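Thread amino acids onto this structure.
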């Protein structure tokens, strides 16, 4: 087969909703999947034709071409450090799909043996936004340490084949841009939730957009939001910028109000 088209053996660590979402498309494309997780997903995996391992060493012995880590941001370090990578039988590509990038990159470089390849990736979509297909949705990746270009190319082809907009970007640049876009979006959505905004009989299109933002944001866990803040060094400054901007608007309103009295 030509590069980028061969079928892969992909092992997934952490088989929560996002991993399940990705796995269904990988299976549709004909790739062979195995999975392991703290929770017992053996019944679901059996339905999806995925081999589920409760034992991490048996999982590592399965001869996967790629191991995809799909844990939460907050549990990533603990999970990564608990994996006995010396059980891998061959050089393997380790990929992760966290919503922050510098943090997992630095940990992977610290923990993994030199012969293991590293790909940091972020599908900028999920089960909600990607339920009708991935065409036109953004997939960001950084080839942190790649010696086997063929395996890496085959993995990226999974997303190319679905029509994703492929963006190669450094982990640092990803976090810088994501702090201004993704983190701020989540922050505004959570602020609106704290205000308990609801649809009214007088909704404008703009207000409907805000209600939708609140509802979509609250579908994600607070742990995810916390991870976006704690493990993206640019997020703290963006939060300060938002606070300063709100104060500036408040001052302008008060200044204008005093002028009209």
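Threaded sequence (261 positions):
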């Amino acid at each position: 087969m030509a590069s980028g088209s061969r079928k892969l053996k992909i092992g997934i660590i952490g088989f929560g909703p996002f991993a399940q979402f990705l796995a269904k498309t990988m299976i549709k494309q004909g790739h062979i999947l195995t999975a392991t997780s703290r929770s017992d997903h053996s019944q679901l995996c059996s339905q999806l034709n995925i081999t589920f391992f409760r034992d991490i060493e048996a999982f590592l012995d399965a001869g996967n071409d790629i191991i995809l880590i799909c844990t939460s941001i907050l549990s990533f370090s603990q999970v990564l450090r608990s994996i006995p990578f010396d059980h891998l039988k061959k050089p393997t590509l380790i990929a992760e799909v966290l919503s922050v990038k510098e943090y997992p990159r630095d940990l992977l470089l610290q923990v993994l043996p030199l012969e293991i390849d590293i790909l940091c990736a972020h599908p900028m979509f999920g089960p909600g936004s990607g339920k009708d297909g991935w065409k036109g949705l953004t997939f960001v990746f950084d080839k942190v340490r790649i010696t086997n270009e063929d395996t890496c190319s085959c993995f990226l082809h999974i997303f190319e084949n679905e029509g994703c907009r492929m963006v190669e970007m450094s982990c640092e640049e990803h976090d810088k841009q994501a702090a201004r876009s993704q983190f701020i979006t989540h922050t505004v959505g959570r602020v609106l939730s704290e205000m308990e905004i609801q649809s009214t009989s007088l909704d404008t299109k703009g207000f409907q957009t805000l209600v939708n933002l609140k509802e979509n944001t609250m579908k994600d866990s607070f742990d995810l939001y916390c991870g976006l803040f704690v493990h993206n060094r640019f997020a703290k400054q963006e939060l300060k910028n938002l606070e300063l901007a709100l104060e500036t608007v408040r001052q302008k309103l008060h200044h204008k109000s005093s002028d009209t009295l």
